[in-house]
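Weekly sync notes, structure subgroup
Attendees: PM, AL, DS (notes)

Item 1: joint prediction request from the bench team. They want all two components modeled as one assembly rather than separately. Inputs as received:
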Amino acid sequence: MATQAVEVPIKRQSLRERFDLGSGFTPYFLVLPTVVVILAVAAYPILNSIWLSLLDNPLSPVANLVGLRNFAQLFGNSEFRSSIVTTFIFTIISVALETILGLGIAILINGTFPGRGLVRASILVPWAFPTVISAQIWYLMYNDRTGIVSYILQQIHLLAPGATLLESNGGIIAASIITDVWKTTPFMALLLLAGLQVIPNELYEAASVDGSTRFQQFWTITLPMLSGPLVIALLFRTLASLGVFDLLYVLGGNQVQSMASFSYNYMFTRSTFDFAPGVAAAIVLFVTGLVVSLLFVLLMRVTRR
Amino acid sequence: MAVKNQVLSGAKARARTAEPGKGIQWGKVIRYTAVVFVVLVSLGPLYWTVVTSVKSGIELNLSPPTLFPHSFSFENYANDLSLSTFTRDLLNSAIIATITTILALTVGILCAYAIARTKFRGKSIVLGITLSVTMIPLIALVGPLFVIFTGPLPVYNTYTALIIPDLATSLPITVWFMTSFFRDLPPDLEEAARVDGATRMRALWEIIVPLTAPGVFAAAILSFIAVWNDFLFGLTLTIDEHAQPVTVGITRFNGEHTIPWGEIAAAAVIVTIPLVIVVLFLQKRIVSGLTAGAVKG
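Output from the run, pasted for the record:
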Protein backbone atom coordinates (compact mmCIF):
# COMPACT_ATOMS: atom_id res chain seq x y z
CA MET A 1 0.00 0.00 0.00
CA ALA A 2 2.66 2.41 1.06
CA THR A 3 4.77 1.83 -2.05
CA GLN A 4 1.76 2.25 -4.35
CA ALA A 5 0.86 5.54 -2.75
CA VAL A 6 4.33 6.79 -3.52
CA GLU A 7 4.48 5.44 -7.05
CA VAL A 8 1.29 7.04 -8.39
CA PRO A 9 2.23 10.66 -7.68
CA ILE A 10 5.60 10.05 -9.31
CA LYS A 11 3.92 8.90 -12.52
CA ARG A 12 1.65 11.94 -12.54
CA GLN A 13 4.60 14.14 -11.89
CA SER A 14 6.41 12.95 -15.00
CA LEU A 15 3.36 13.44 -17.23
CA ARG A 16 2.80 16.86 -15.77
CA GLU A 17 6.40 17.77 -16.33
CA ARG A 18 5.97 17.14 -20.02
CA PHE A 19 2.92 19.31 -20.55
CA ASP A 20 2.51 21.51 -17.54
CA LEU A 21 4.38 24.74 -17.14
CA GLY A 22 2.41 25.89 -14.13
CA SER A 23 -1.22 25.79 -15.14
CA GLY A 24 -2.02 22.09 -15.31
CA PHE A 25 -4.05 20.76 -18.20
CA THR A 26 -6.65 23.54 -18.02
CA PRO A 27 -5.05 25.59 -20.83
CA TYR A 28 -5.42 22.66 -23.19
CA PHE A 29 -9.13 22.42 -22.48
CA LEU A 30 -9.45 26.16 -23.01
CA VAL A 31 -7.75 26.22 -26.39
CA LEU A 32 -9.23 22.94 -27.62
CA PRO A 33 -12.58 24.35 -28.89
CA THR A 34 -10.81 27.06 -30.92
CA VAL A 35 -8.35 24.59 -32.41
CA VAL A 36 -11.17 22.19 -33.32
CA VAL A 37 -13.26 24.96 -34.92
CA ILE A 38 -10.30 26.25 -36.92
CA LEU A 39 -9.36 22.78 -38.11
CA ALA A 40 -12.98 22.21 -39.17
CA VAL A 41 -13.71 25.53 -40.87
CA ALA A 42 -10.31 26.27 -42.42
CA ALA A 43 -7.78 23.43 -42.37
CA TYR A 44 -10.17 20.72 -43.53
CA PRO A 45 -11.62 22.72 -46.47
CA ILE A 46 -8.11 23.61 -47.66
CA LEU A 47 -6.98 19.98 -47.61
CA ASN A 48 -10.26 18.95 -49.19
CA SER A 49 -9.83 21.49 -51.99
CA ILE A 50 -6.44 19.98 -52.88
CA TRP A 51 -8.26 16.66 -53.36
CA LEU A 52 -11.03 18.33 -55.40
CA SER A 53 -8.49 19.98 -57.68
CA LEU A 54 -7.22 16.54 -58.70
CA LEU A 55 -10.67 15.36 -59.90
CA ASP A 56 -12.26 15.91 -63.31
CA ASN A 57 -15.69 16.91 -61.98
CA PRO A 58 -16.14 17.04 -58.18
CA LEU A 59 -19.85 17.87 -58.60
CA SER A 60 -20.58 14.61 -60.38
CA PRO A 61 -21.17 11.44 -58.34
CA VAL A 62 -18.68 9.58 -60.53
CA ALA A 63 -15.66 11.87 -60.41
CA ASN A 64 -12.36 10.55 -61.72
CA LEU A 65 -8.89 11.31 -60.52
CA VAL A 66 -7.03 13.18 -63.25
CA GLY A 67 -3.84 14.16 -61.42
CA LEU A 68 -2.50 17.60 -62.22
CA ARG A 69 -4.47 18.00 -65.46
CA ASN A 70 -6.52 20.90 -64.05
CA PHE A 71 -3.36 22.80 -63.14
CA ALA A 72 -1.83 22.16 -66.55
CA GLN A 73 -5.03 23.39 -68.21
CA LEU A 74 -5.01 26.43 -65.94
CA PHE A 75 -1.53 27.61 -66.82
CA GLY A 76 -2.27 27.06 -70.48
CA ASN A 77 -5.27 29.37 -70.13
CA SER A 78 -4.47 32.95 -71.18
CA GLU A 79 -7.45 34.22 -69.16
CA PHE A 80 -5.89 32.79 -65.99
CA ARG A 81 -2.45 34.14 -66.81
CA SER A 82 -3.88 37.61 -67.29
CA SER A 83 -5.75 37.28 -63.98
CA ILE A 84 -2.38 36.66 -62.31
CA VAL A 85 -0.97 39.79 -63.95
CA THR A 86 -4.03 41.82 -62.91
CA THR A 87 -3.81 40.54 -59.33
CA PHE A 88 -0.13 41.43 -59.03
CA ILE A 89 -0.51 44.87 -60.60
CA PHE A 90 -3.45 45.57 -58.29
CA THR A 91 -1.60 44.31 -55.21
CA ILE A 92 1.70 46.09 -55.82
CA ILE A 93 0.20 49.47 -56.70
CA SER A 94 -2.54 49.53 -54.09
CA VAL A 95 -0.33 48.32 -51.23
CA ALA A 96 2.37 50.82 -52.20
CA LEU A 97 -0.12 53.71 -52.31
CA GLU A 98 -1.79 52.62 -49.08
CA THR A 99 1.55 52.42 -47.31
CA ILE A 100 2.70 55.86 -48.45
CA LEU A 101 -0.65 57.54 -47.79
CA GLY A 102 -1.17 55.57 -44.58
CA LEU A 103 2.23 56.67 -43.29
CA GLY A 104 1.41 60.25 -44.22
CA ILE A 105 -1.91 60.17 -42.39
CA ALA A 106 -0.35 58.43 -39.39
CA ILE A 107 2.32 61.13 -39.11
CA LEU A 108 -0.37 63.78 -39.60
CA ILE A 109 -2.59 62.62 -36.74
CA ASN A 110 0.32 61.72 -34.49
CA GLY A 111 0.77 65.44 -33.89
CA THR A 112 -1.55 67.55 -31.78
CA PHE A 113 -3.59 70.19 -33.58
CA PRO A 114 -7.21 71.30 -33.66
CA GLY A 115 -9.17 69.02 -35.96
CA ARG A 116 -7.12 65.93 -35.18
CA GLY A 117 -10.15 64.12 -33.79
CA LEU A 118 -12.10 64.92 -36.95
CA VAL A 119 -9.42 63.33 -39.16
CA ARG A 120 -9.25 60.29 -36.91
CA ALA A 121 -13.00 59.82 -36.97
CA SER A 122 -13.43 60.46 -40.68
CA ILE A 123 -10.82 57.92 -41.77
CA LEU A 124 -12.77 55.27 -39.86
CA VAL A 125 -15.78 55.82 -42.12
CA PRO A 126 -14.36 54.09 -45.22
CA TRP A 127 -13.12 51.26 -43.02
CA ALA A 128 -16.66 50.62 -41.74
CA PHE A 129 -18.08 50.30 -45.28
CA PRO A 130 -18.56 46.70 -46.40
CA THR A 131 -16.13 46.23 -49.31
CA VAL A 132 -18.79 45.17 -51.80
CA ILE A 133 -20.91 48.20 -50.93
CA SER A 134 -17.95 50.55 -51.31
CA ALA A 135 -17.42 48.95 -54.72
CA GLN A 136 -21.07 49.67 -55.59
CA ILE A 137 -20.83 53.26 -54.43
CA TRP A 138 -17.69 53.88 -56.43
CA TYR A 139 -19.26 52.10 -59.42
CA LEU A 140 -22.03 54.68 -59.15
CA MET A 141 -19.46 57.49 -58.96
CA TYR A 142 -17.55 56.14 -61.99
CA ASN A 143 -20.67 56.26 -64.18
CA ASP A 144 -19.86 58.06 -67.45
CA ARG A 145 -22.83 60.46 -67.35
CA THR A 146 -24.01 60.82 -63.78
CA GLY A 147 -20.93 59.76 -61.79
CA ILE A 148 -19.24 62.48 -59.78
CA VAL A 149 -15.74 60.98 -60.05
CA SER A 150 -15.99 60.71 -63.84
CA TYR A 151 -17.30 64.27 -63.91
CA ILE A 152 -14.34 65.57 -61.86
CA LEU A 153 -11.85 63.60 -63.97
CA GLN A 154 -13.50 64.99 -67.14
CA GLN A 155 -13.31 68.55 -65.80
CA ILE A 156 -9.58 68.28 -65.03
CA HIS A 157 -9.09 66.66 -68.47
CA LEU A 158 -7.86 63.32 -67.18
CA LEU A 159 -10.80 61.83 -69.04
CA ALA A 160 -12.35 62.84 -72.37
CA PRO A 161 -15.88 64.33 -72.09
CA GLY A 162 -18.41 61.53 -71.61
CA ALA A 163 -15.68 58.96 -70.88
CA THR A 164 -15.31 56.75 -67.80
CA LEU A 165 -12.49 54.81 -66.23
CA LEU A 166 -14.50 51.64 -66.66
CA GLU A 167 -14.14 51.62 -70.46
CA SER A 168 -10.74 49.94 -70.63
CA ASN A 169 -9.10 47.10 -68.73
CA GLY A 170 -6.40 49.40 -67.42
CA GLY A 171 -9.07 51.86 -66.35
CA ILE A 172 -10.97 49.17 -64.48
CA ILE A 173 -7.80 48.18 -62.62
CA ALA A 174 -7.12 51.85 -61.83
CA ALA A 175 -10.71 52.26 -60.59
CA SER A 176 -10.33 49.18 -58.38
CA ILE A 177 -7.06 50.50 -56.98
CA ILE A 178 -8.62 53.90 -56.18
CA THR A 179 -11.53 52.23 -54.41
CA ASP A 180 -9.24 49.89 -52.48
CA VAL A 181 -6.93 52.73 -51.45
CA TRP A 182 -9.95 54.70 -50.20
CA LYS A 183 -11.25 51.72 -48.25
CA THR A 184 -8.09 50.34 -46.65
CA THR A 185 -5.65 53.22 -46.19
CA PRO A 186 -7.29 53.90 -42.78
CA PHE A 187 -6.30 50.42 -41.58
CA MET A 188 -2.72 51.09 -42.61
CA ALA A 189 -2.76 54.55 -41.03
CA LEU A 190 -4.10 53.26 -37.71
CA LEU A 191 -1.58 50.40 -37.53
CA LEU A 192 1.28 52.75 -38.28
CA LEU A 193 -0.07 55.36 -35.86
CA ALA A 194 0.03 52.77 -33.08
CA GLY A 195 3.63 52.13 -34.05
CA LEU A 196 4.49 55.84 -34.04
CA GLN A 197 3.01 56.32 -30.61
CA VAL A 198 5.41 53.91 -28.93
CA ILE A 199 8.50 55.68 -30.29
CA PRO A 200 9.94 57.52 -27.26
CA ASN A 201 9.86 61.28 -27.62
CA GLU A 202 13.34 61.55 -26.10
CA LEU A 203 14.78 60.19 -29.33
CA TYR A 204 13.43 63.16 -31.26
CA GLU A 205 14.43 65.61 -28.54
CA ALA A 206 17.97 64.27 -28.53
CA ALA A 207 18.09 64.44 -32.32
CA SER A 208 16.83 68.04 -32.27
CA VAL A 209 19.50 68.99 -29.77
CA ASP A 210 22.06 67.48 -32.14
CA GLY A 211 20.64 69.77 -34.81
CA SER A 212 19.10 67.21 -37.15
CA THR A 213 16.21 68.31 -39.36
CA ARG A 214 12.74 66.76 -39.29
CA PHE A 215 13.48 65.13 -42.60
CA GLN A 216 16.63 63.51 -41.20
CA GLN A 217 14.71 62.43 -38.11
CA PHE A 218 12.14 60.68 -40.29
CA TRP A 219 14.79 58.56 -41.99
CA THR A 220 17.00 57.91 -38.97
CA ILE A 221 14.39 57.51 -36.20
CA THR A 222 10.82 57.13 -37.46
CA LEU A 223 11.29 54.62 -40.27
CA PRO A 224 13.69 52.26 -38.46
CA MET A 225 11.56 52.31 -35.28
CA LEU A 226 8.45 51.69 -37.37
CA SER A 227 9.84 48.77 -39.35
CA GLY A 228 8.17 46.11 -37.17
CA PRO A 229 4.56 47.37 -37.44
CA LEU A 230 5.22 48.36 -41.05
CA VAL A 231 6.22 44.85 -42.10
CA ILE A 232 3.21 43.32 -40.29
CA ALA A 233 0.82 45.84 -41.88
CA LEU A 234 2.40 45.20 -45.29
CA LEU A 235 1.99 41.45 -44.88
CA PHE A 236 -1.70 41.71 -43.92
CA ARG A 237 -2.47 44.15 -46.71
CA THR A 238 -0.52 42.22 -49.35
CA LEU A 239 -2.31 38.96 -48.55
CA ALA A 240 -5.69 40.68 -48.50
CA SER A 241 -4.97 42.39 -51.83
CA LEU A 242 -3.85 39.17 -53.48
CA GLY A 243 -7.24 37.72 -52.58
CA VAL A 244 -9.17 40.73 -53.96
CA PHE A 245 -12.62 39.61 -55.05
CA ASP A 246 -15.49 41.98 -54.20
CA LEU A 247 -14.03 44.98 -56.04
CA LEU A 248 -13.42 43.19 -59.30
CA TYR A 249 -16.69 41.29 -59.03
CA VAL A 250 -18.50 44.64 -59.13
CA LEU A 251 -16.14 46.75 -61.26
CA GLY A 252 -14.55 44.11 -63.49
CA GLY A 253 -17.34 41.72 -64.40
CA ASN A 254 -16.04 39.07 -66.77
CA GLN A 255 -13.81 41.56 -68.50
CA VAL A 256 -11.10 42.04 -65.89
CA GLN A 257 -10.60 39.23 -63.41
CA SER A 258 -8.40 38.84 -60.36
CA MET A 259 -7.22 35.34 -59.48
CA ALA A 260 -10.05 35.10 -56.93
CA SER A 261 -12.76 36.29 -59.31
CA PHE A 262 -11.39 34.01 -62.06
CA SER A 263 -11.68 31.13 -59.59
CA TYR A 264 -15.23 32.20 -58.67
CA ASN A 265 -16.30 32.53 -62.32
CA TYR A 266 -14.99 29.08 -63.15
CA MET A 267 -16.53 27.45 -60.09
CA PHE A 268 -19.94 29.07 -60.14
CA THR A 269 -20.83 30.73 -63.43
CA ARG A 270 -19.82 28.16 -66.03
CA SER A 271 -20.36 24.47 -66.75
CA THR A 272 -19.72 21.99 -63.93
CA PHE A 273 -16.60 20.81 -65.79
CA ASP A 274 -15.00 24.15 -65.01
CA PHE A 275 -15.51 23.69 -61.26
CA ALA A 276 -12.28 21.74 -60.68
CA PRO A 277 -10.07 24.20 -62.62
CA GLY A 278 -11.71 26.95 -60.52
CA VAL A 279 -10.71 25.13 -57.32
CA ALA A 280 -7.21 24.66 -58.73
CA ALA A 281 -6.99 28.43 -59.37
CA ALA A 282 -7.88 29.07 -55.71
CA ILE A 283 -5.10 26.70 -54.65
CA VAL A 284 -2.61 28.54 -56.85
CA LEU A 285 -3.71 31.75 -55.09
CA PHE A 286 -3.35 30.08 -51.68
CA VAL A 287 0.18 28.88 -52.50
CA THR A 288 1.07 32.36 -53.83
CA GLY A 289 0.00 33.75 -50.44
CA LEU A 290 2.14 31.16 -48.63
CA VAL A 291 5.21 32.08 -50.67
CA VAL A 292 4.62 35.79 -50.03
CA SER A 293 4.21 35.11 -46.28
CA LEU A 294 7.51 33.22 -46.22
CA LEU A 295 9.24 36.11 -47.99
CA PHE A 296 7.83 38.44 -45.34
CA VAL A 297 9.03 36.20 -42.51
CA LEU A 298 12.51 36.36 -44.05
CA LEU A 299 12.17 40.14 -44.32
CA MET A 300 11.18 40.34 -40.63
CA ARG A 301 14.28 38.35 -39.67
CA VAL A 302 16.42 40.79 -41.62
CA THR A 303 14.79 43.93 -40.19
CA ARG A 304 15.11 42.61 -36.64
CA ARG A 305 18.87 42.33 -36.93
CA MET B 1 -13.91 73.52 -51.87
CA ALA B 2 -15.01 76.68 -50.12
CA VAL B 3 -13.92 75.23 -46.80
CA LYS B 4 -10.63 74.23 -48.27
CA ASN B 5 -9.96 77.73 -49.61
CA GLN B 6 -10.90 79.31 -46.33
CA VAL B 7 -8.58 77.09 -44.35
CA LEU B 8 -5.84 77.61 -46.88
CA SER B 9 -6.16 81.37 -46.96
CA GLY B 10 -6.40 81.44 -43.18
CA ALA B 11 -3.19 79.49 -42.87
CA LYS B 12 -1.50 81.60 -45.52
CA ALA B 13 -2.58 84.80 -43.81
CA ARG B 14 -1.08 83.58 -40.57
CA ALA B 15 2.04 82.53 -42.42
CA ARG B 16 2.38 86.05 -43.84
CA THR B 17 1.99 87.79 -40.50
CA ALA B 18 4.50 85.49 -38.84
CA GLU B 19 8.12 86.44 -38.44
CA PRO B 20 10.09 85.85 -41.59
CA GLY B 21 12.36 82.82 -41.62
CA LYS B 22 10.09 80.58 -39.60
CA GLY B 23 9.45 77.40 -41.61
CA ILE B 24 6.87 76.19 -39.11
CA GLN B 25 4.09 78.23 -40.73
CA TRP B 26 4.57 76.41 -44.02
CA GLY B 27 4.26 73.21 -42.03
CA LYS B 28 0.85 74.44 -40.90
CA VAL B 29 -0.26 75.17 -44.46
CA ILE B 30 0.74 71.69 -45.58
CA ARG B 31 -0.86 70.12 -42.50
CA TYR B 32 -4.22 71.82 -42.95
CA THR B 33 -4.30 71.17 -46.68
CA ALA B 34 -3.71 67.52 -45.87
CA VAL B 35 -6.40 67.57 -43.17
CA VAL B 36 -8.98 69.02 -45.54
CA PHE B 37 -8.00 66.62 -48.29
CA VAL B 38 -8.14 63.54 -46.06
CA VAL B 39 -11.50 64.51 -44.55
CA LEU B 40 -13.04 65.36 -47.95
CA VAL B 41 -11.86 62.17 -49.60
CA SER B 42 -12.83 59.98 -46.63
CA LEU B 43 -16.32 61.40 -46.26
CA GLY B 44 -17.02 62.29 -49.91
CA PRO B 45 -18.33 58.88 -50.98
CA LEU B 46 -20.53 58.69 -47.85
CA TYR B 47 -21.92 62.13 -48.68
CA TRP B 48 -22.48 61.06 -52.28
CA THR B 49 -24.31 57.91 -51.21
CA VAL B 50 -26.63 59.87 -48.93
CA VAL B 51 -27.25 62.55 -51.57
CA THR B 52 -27.97 59.95 -54.25
CA SER B 53 -30.36 58.13 -51.94
CA VAL B 54 -32.59 61.18 -51.49
CA LYS B 55 -32.65 62.25 -55.14
CA SER B 56 -35.73 61.61 -57.24
CA GLY B 57 -35.69 59.63 -60.47
CA ILE B 58 -35.24 62.61 -62.81
CA GLU B 59 -32.49 64.23 -60.82
CA LEU B 60 -30.61 60.92 -60.63
CA ASN B 61 -30.27 60.98 -64.41
CA LEU B 62 -29.01 64.56 -64.67
CA SER B 63 -25.64 65.00 -66.29
CA PRO B 64 -23.55 66.55 -64.86
CA PRO B 65 -24.74 65.29 -61.47
CA THR B 66 -26.02 67.82 -58.92
CA LEU B 67 -23.75 68.24 -55.93
CA PHE B 68 -26.65 69.16 -53.67
CA PRO B 69 -30.11 67.66 -54.29
CA HIS B 70 -32.75 70.10 -55.62
CA SER B 71 -35.49 68.23 -53.83
CA PHE B 72 -35.46 65.62 -51.10
CA SER B 73 -37.46 62.47 -51.48
CA PHE B 74 -37.51 59.39 -49.30
CA GLU B 75 -39.10 57.37 -52.06
CA ASN B 76 -36.00 55.19 -52.51
CA TYR B 77 -36.02 54.23 -48.83
CA ALA B 78 -39.72 53.48 -48.95
CA ASN B 79 -39.20 51.32 -52.04
CA ASP B 80 -36.36 49.38 -50.39
CA LEU B 81 -38.19 48.78 -47.16
CA SER B 82 -41.35 47.67 -48.93
CA LEU B 83 -39.33 45.01 -50.72
CA SER B 84 -39.80 41.85 -48.69
CA THR B 85 -36.52 40.42 -50.01
CA PHE B 86 -34.54 43.42 -48.79
CA THR B 87 -35.96 43.38 -45.25
CA ARG B 88 -35.51 39.62 -45.15
CA ASP B 89 -31.86 40.02 -46.27
CA LEU B 90 -31.29 42.56 -43.50
CA LEU B 91 -32.74 40.14 -40.96
CA ASN B 92 -30.58 37.31 -42.36
CA SER B 93 -27.43 39.40 -42.02
CA ALA B 94 -28.33 40.41 -38.47
CA ILE B 95 -29.07 36.84 -37.37
CA ILE B 96 -25.97 35.36 -39.03
CA ALA B 97 -23.68 38.06 -37.63
CA THR B 98 -25.16 37.77 -34.12
CA ILE B 99 -24.96 33.98 -33.87
CA THR B 100 -21.45 33.86 -35.36
CA THR B 101 -20.26 36.57 -32.98
CA ILE B 102 -21.68 34.82 -29.92
CA LEU B 103 -20.07 31.52 -30.95
CA ALA B 104 -16.74 33.16 -31.74
CA LEU B 105 -16.72 35.02 -28.42
CA THR B 106 -17.63 31.96 -26.34
CA VAL B 107 -14.92 29.83 -27.91
CA GLY B 108 -12.39 32.60 -28.52
CA ILE B 109 -12.44 34.07 -25.01
CA LEU B 110 -11.42 30.70 -23.53
CA CYS B 111 -8.57 30.39 -25.98
CA ALA B 112 -7.40 33.98 -25.57
CA TYR B 113 -7.45 33.62 -21.79
CA ALA B 114 -5.29 30.50 -21.95
CA ILE B 115 -2.81 32.20 -24.32
CA ALA B 116 -2.59 35.42 -22.31
CA ARG B 117 -2.75 34.21 -18.72
CA THR B 118 -1.47 30.64 -18.47
CA LYS B 119 1.69 28.82 -19.36
CA PHE B 120 1.55 25.75 -21.53
CA ARG B 121 3.53 23.98 -24.18
CA GLY B 122 2.42 24.64 -27.75
CA LYS B 123 1.10 28.13 -27.05
CA SER B 124 2.89 29.62 -30.04
CA ILE B 125 1.52 26.82 -32.23
CA VAL B 126 -2.06 27.61 -31.17
CA LEU B 127 -1.54 31.33 -31.78
CA GLY B 128 0.20 30.57 -35.08
CA ILE B 129 -2.64 28.34 -36.32
CA THR B 130 -5.24 30.93 -35.33
CA LEU B 131 -3.43 33.75 -37.10
CA SER B 132 -2.56 31.78 -40.21
CA VAL B 133 -6.30 31.36 -40.86
CA THR B 134 -6.59 35.11 -41.45
CA MET B 135 -4.07 34.71 -44.27
CA ILE B 136 -6.04 32.10 -46.21
CA PRO B 137 -7.76 33.58 -49.27
CA LEU B 138 -11.46 33.02 -48.64
CA ILE B 139 -11.99 31.90 -52.23
CA ALA B 140 -9.96 28.79 -51.37
CA LEU B 141 -12.61 27.80 -48.80
CA VAL B 142 -15.76 28.19 -50.89
CA GLY B 143 -15.15 25.42 -53.44
CA PRO B 144 -14.87 22.57 -50.91
CA LEU B 145 -17.58 24.11 -48.70
CA PHE B 146 -19.96 24.24 -51.67
CA VAL B 147 -19.31 20.56 -52.39
CA ILE B 148 -19.76 19.63 -48.72
CA PHE B 149 -22.87 21.77 -48.19
CA THR B 150 -24.63 20.49 -51.31
CA GLY B 151 -23.65 16.89 -50.56
CA PRO B 152 -22.68 15.19 -47.30
CA LEU B 153 -23.75 18.06 -45.03
CA PRO B 154 -26.82 19.50 -46.79
CA VAL B 155 -26.93 23.02 -45.31
CA TYR B 156 -26.62 24.98 -48.59
CA ASN B 157 -28.79 28.15 -48.52
CA THR B 158 -29.26 28.08 -44.72
CA TYR B 159 -27.79 30.25 -41.94
CA THR B 160 -25.53 27.35 -40.94
CA ALA B 161 -23.90 27.45 -44.38
CA LEU B 162 -22.70 30.99 -43.61
CA ILE B 163 -22.08 30.73 -39.85
CA ILE B 164 -19.55 27.92 -40.37
CA PRO B 165 -17.21 29.77 -42.79
CA ASP B 166 -17.84 33.14 -41.09
CA LEU B 167 -16.27 31.63 -37.96
CA ALA B 168 -13.06 31.36 -39.97
CA THR B 169 -12.96 35.16 -40.16
CA SER B 170 -14.46 36.14 -36.80
CA LEU B 171 -12.76 33.62 -34.49
CA PRO B 172 -9.17 34.72 -35.24
CA ILE B 173 -10.20 38.37 -34.76
CA THR B 174 -11.76 37.53 -31.38
CA VAL B 175 -8.77 35.48 -30.19
CA TRP B 176 -6.26 38.08 -31.35
CA PHE B 177 -8.21 40.98 -29.85
CA MET B 178 -9.06 39.35 -26.51
CA THR B 179 -5.53 38.03 -26.01
CA SER B 180 -4.19 41.56 -26.02
CA PHE B 181 -6.93 42.68 -23.63
CA PHE B 182 -6.26 39.87 -21.16
CA ARG B 183 -2.53 40.61 -21.33
CA ASP B 184 -3.12 44.19 -20.29
CA LEU B 185 -4.93 43.19 -17.08
CA PRO B 186 -2.91 43.26 -13.84
CA PRO B 187 -1.83 39.70 -13.02
CA ASP B 188 -2.68 39.80 -9.30
CA LEU B 189 -6.46 40.04 -9.87
CA GLU B 190 -7.14 36.42 -10.57
CA GLU B 191 -4.47 35.37 -8.09
CA ALA B 192 -6.48 37.15 -5.41
CA ALA B 193 -9.55 35.26 -6.60
CA ARG B 194 -7.71 31.97 -6.56
CA VAL B 195 -6.49 32.54 -3.02
CA ASP B 196 -10.13 32.92 -2.08
CA GLY B 197 -10.67 29.41 -3.37
CA ALA B 198 -12.19 30.16 -6.77
CA THR B 199 -11.23 27.77 -9.54
CA ARG B 200 -9.53 29.14 -12.62
CA MET B 201 -12.77 28.92 -14.57
CA ARG B 202 -14.66 30.88 -11.92
CA ALA B 203 -11.86 33.41 -11.79
CA LEU B 204 -12.21 33.80 -15.54
CA TRP B 205 -15.98 34.28 -15.64
CA GLU B 206 -16.49 36.24 -12.44
CA ILE B 207 -13.48 38.50 -12.33
CA ILE B 208 -11.69 38.67 -15.64
CA VAL B 209 -14.68 38.81 -17.97
CA PRO B 210 -16.52 41.63 -16.16
CA LEU B 211 -13.28 43.60 -16.06
CA THR B 212 -12.79 43.12 -19.75
CA ALA B 213 -16.45 43.73 -20.59
CA PRO B 214 -15.54 46.81 -22.65
CA GLY B 215 -12.99 44.72 -24.52
CA VAL B 216 -15.47 41.91 -25.03
CA PHE B 217 -17.96 44.42 -26.37
CA ALA B 218 -15.44 45.89 -28.81
CA ALA B 219 -14.39 42.38 -29.91
CA ALA B 220 -18.07 41.62 -30.50
CA ILE B 221 -18.41 44.74 -32.66
CA LEU B 222 -15.32 43.88 -34.72
CA SER B 223 -16.54 40.33 -35.22
CA PHE B 224 -20.05 41.52 -36.07
CA ILE B 225 -18.68 43.97 -38.66
CA ALA B 226 -16.44 41.31 -40.20
CA VAL B 227 -19.38 38.93 -40.62
CA TRP B 228 -21.82 41.66 -41.70
CA ASN B 229 -19.33 42.69 -44.41
CA ASP B 230 -19.01 39.19 -45.84
CA PHE B 231 -19.90 38.96 -49.50
CA LEU B 232 -18.15 35.93 -50.99
CA PHE B 233 -19.62 33.28 -48.69
CA GLY B 234 -23.10 34.73 -49.08
CA LEU B 235 -22.70 34.82 -52.85
CA THR B 236 -21.58 31.22 -53.18
CA LEU B 237 -23.27 29.36 -50.33
CA THR B 238 -26.79 30.82 -50.53
CA ILE B 239 -29.10 31.26 -53.50
CA ASP B 240 -32.08 33.37 -52.39
CA GLU B 241 -33.58 35.45 -49.59
CA HIS B 242 -34.07 32.33 -47.50
CA ALA B 243 -30.55 32.89 -46.15
CA GLN B 244 -28.72 35.41 -48.37
CA PRO B 245 -27.06 38.32 -46.53
CA VAL B 246 -27.90 41.91 -47.42
CA THR B 247 -24.49 42.53 -49.07
CA VAL B 248 -25.42 39.93 -51.66
CA GLY B 249 -29.01 41.15 -51.88
CA ILE B 250 -27.84 44.64 -52.85
CA THR B 251 -25.80 43.38 -55.81
CA ARG B 252 -28.84 41.43 -56.97
CA PHE B 253 -30.73 44.76 -57.26
CA ASN B 254 -28.88 45.16 -60.53
CA GLY B 255 -30.86 42.58 -62.42
CA GLU B 256 -33.38 44.83 -64.24
CA HIS B 257 -33.05 46.86 -67.45
CA THR B 258 -31.86 50.04 -65.78
CA ILE B 259 -29.74 50.13 -62.65
CA PRO B 260 -31.84 51.53 -59.77
CA TRP B 261 -29.10 53.81 -58.40
CA GLY B 262 -31.33 55.65 -55.96
CA GLU B 263 -32.53 52.44 -54.37
CA ILE B 264 -29.04 50.95 -54.27
CA ALA B 265 -27.76 54.10 -52.58
CA ALA B 266 -30.61 54.05 -50.06
CA ALA B 267 -29.93 50.39 -49.32
CA ALA B 268 -26.21 51.16 -48.93
CA VAL B 269 -27.07 53.88 -46.40
CA ILE B 270 -29.33 51.51 -44.45
CA VAL B 271 -26.65 48.81 -44.40
CA THR B 272 -23.70 51.08 -43.64
CA ILE B 273 -24.87 53.95 -41.44
CA PRO B 274 -25.51 51.82 -38.30
CA LEU B 275 -21.96 50.48 -38.56
CA VAL B 276 -20.51 53.95 -39.08
CA ILE B 277 -22.33 55.28 -36.01
CA VAL B 278 -21.22 52.37 -33.81
CA VAL B 279 -17.64 52.67 -35.06
CA LEU B 280 -17.55 56.40 -34.35
CA PHE B 281 -18.91 55.88 -30.83
CA LEU B 282 -16.43 53.14 -30.03
CA GLN B 283 -13.54 54.74 -31.93
CA LYS B 284 -10.87 54.39 -29.30
CA ARG B 285 -11.57 50.78 -28.43
CA ILE B 286 -11.86 49.71 -32.03
CA VAL B 287 -8.62 51.42 -32.95
CA SER B 288 -6.80 49.81 -30.03
CA GLY B 289 -8.30 46.49 -31.04
CA LEU B 290 -7.35 46.82 -34.69
CA THR B 291 -3.80 47.67 -33.82
CA ALA B 292 -3.38 45.22 -30.92
CA GLY B 293 -0.40 43.01 -31.30
CA ALA B 294 1.04 44.77 -34.31
CA VAL B 295 3.03 46.95 -31.97
CA LYS B 296 3.54 44.63 -29.05
CA GLY B 297 4.62 41.83 -31.37
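Discussion: Chain A has one domain: 69-304.
Action: AL to compare against the crosslinking data before next sync.
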